[in-house]
Each structure stands twice: as structure tokens, then as C-alpha cells.
Design goal:
- The relative contact order is 0.20.
- With 209 residues, this protein is of the alpha/beta class.
- It starts with a strand and ends with a helix.
- It contains five helices and eight strands, in the order βαββββαβαβαβα.
- Helix 3 packs parallel to helix 4.
- The chain has helices at residues 31-38, 131-137, 150-163, 181-193, 202-208; strands at residues 2-8, 43-49, 58-59, 78-79, 103-107, 140-148, 168-177, 197-199.
- The protein has one domain (2-49, 90-208): 3-Layer(aba) Sandwich (Rossmann fold), CATH 3.40.50.850.
- The chain has a six-stranded parallel sheet, with helices on both faces. Strands 3-4 form a two-stranded parallel ribbon.
- Its EC number is 3.5.1.19.
């Protein structure tokens, strides 16, 4: 059985290392757990947000965030984050260089696209990033998911993979951090309802394999 580990957006933009972007508490501490998760897999995938400064959803302060947008592929406003060439774009400590991954997905490069999941470039989920197809080509049957943040990009990526009907999807909460306890709890409820296995530790993930 071929197993893939997916590191979803483990970037400094989503950690206290970049307090002016979108810091998630302890987001910079999950590198070792992502590595432990990857040790259980045959192939390892990295996804990274890669957003331009002039994106249609960018606002200039945190108090203007999360306002609804009337746009087909950008639903909410956010402060600028994960801009290529900046500190926020970099991956968190302890992770391997990009070139040591087996596959990499860059998300949200176009200024009018702000996807959360790694499987589609658009919110309508019509334009594939090729992730599902790549996993199929590698004969992957089980996908281990960790990263940032549990309640946004991790959840959406896991739900997209599960909806394909092609994989056993396991989310490893030890290798994730979320924005807020209530939204993390709701995300776990949604993922479990979709048939995703949600584990509290890498040891629990290993026991499932």
C-alpha cells in the first residue's frame, strides 16, 4: 500500500514568526511531527501559499479581515501574506528543503484566486492543481494530512481528497495547529462526518496503517 504524507502550508506566515501576517499559535512548532508523519509514508508532498501583493482580497489591517467578497474565487478579505521572496513564504523550522519533497503545489498565485484546499485552484473546485492526479499516478491509497491551519487549509484539503473517493484520508492533529478552539472543533466534526479519520497523535496514525 502506497502512503503519501501531505504538509499543508507549513509556512512562517501562519506562525508567530510573522506576527503581522496570519499567526497561528505554535504554528512554528509542528515541523518535527510533520517529519514523524512523513516517516510513515512512501512519498511526501508540500503545499505552499504563494500570493501576490496585489491580490483582490488584500486589506491593510487585521480589523478589516474576514469581510465577505463578491468574487467567485476569493470569498473573504485577508491581510497580505505568504508573498514569494518574503519571510512569510518560507517553510517553518525543521522541515526539509523544497527539493527534497516528491511533489510541491503552490496555491493562490493568481491575484484573483484564493483557494484553501490544495486540490483545486478555484473555489468552485473545477480547476485541478493536479494533486489528486499525481497521487493516483503514484498508486497512493492512503493520505496522511498535517499542517496549517487545521480549520482552514488542512480541513479543506482533507475534504477535497476524501470527496475524490480514491483515498483513505487521515488527519493528524499532532502535526496541525488551528486558529481557534471552536473552529478547530467544528472542522473536526465536518471531517469526521465526511468519513475522514481524525487522530490525536502520530502513534494513533501509525496504529491505523
Amino acid at each position: 500500500m502506497t502512503i503519501a504524507a501531505i504538509d499543508v502550508d507549513p509556512q512562517k506566515t501562519f506562525t508567530p514568526l510573522c506576527p503581522n501576517e496570519l499567526p497561528v499559535a505554535e504554528g512554528d512548532t509542528i515541523g518535527s511531527e510533520l517529519n514523524r508523519q512523513a516517516a510513515l509514508a512512501n512519498v511526501r508532498v508540500l503545499t505552499k501559499d504563494a500570493h501576490p501583493h496585489n491580490a483582490v482580497w488584500v486589506v491593510d489591517s487585521h480589523d478589516k479581515m474576514l469581510s465577505p467578497l463578491d468574487h467567485p474565487n476569493a470569498d473573504l478579505t485577508w491581510v497580505s501574506h505568504a508573498v514569494p521572496g518574503t519571510l512569510g513564504f518560507e517553510t517553518i523550522p525543521e522541515l526539509p528543503p523544497v527539493t527534497e519533497y516528491d511533489h510541491v503545489i503552490w496555491k493562490g498565485i493568481e491575484p484573483d484566486l484564493h483557494p484553501y484546499g490544495a486540490c483545486y485552484h478555484d473555489l468552485q473546485e473545477k480547476l485541478s492543481t493536479g494533486l489528486i492526479e499525481w497521487l493516483q499516478a503514484k498508486a497512493v491509497k492512503t493520505v496522511l494530512v498535517g499542517g496549517l491551519a487545521t480549520d482552514y487549509c488542512v480541513k479543506t484539503t482533507a475534504l477535497q481528497l476524501q470527496a475524490s473517493g480514491l483515498f483513505q484520508v487521515i488527519v493528524n492533529l499532532a502535526a496541525c495547529r488551528g486558529i481557534a478552539p471552536d473552529t478547530v472543533e467544528q472542522a473536526c466534526i465536518e471531517m469526521k462526518a465526511a468519513g475522514i479519520c481524525v487522530c490525536d497523535s502520530t502513534e494513533a496514525v501509525k496504529a491505523l496503517l
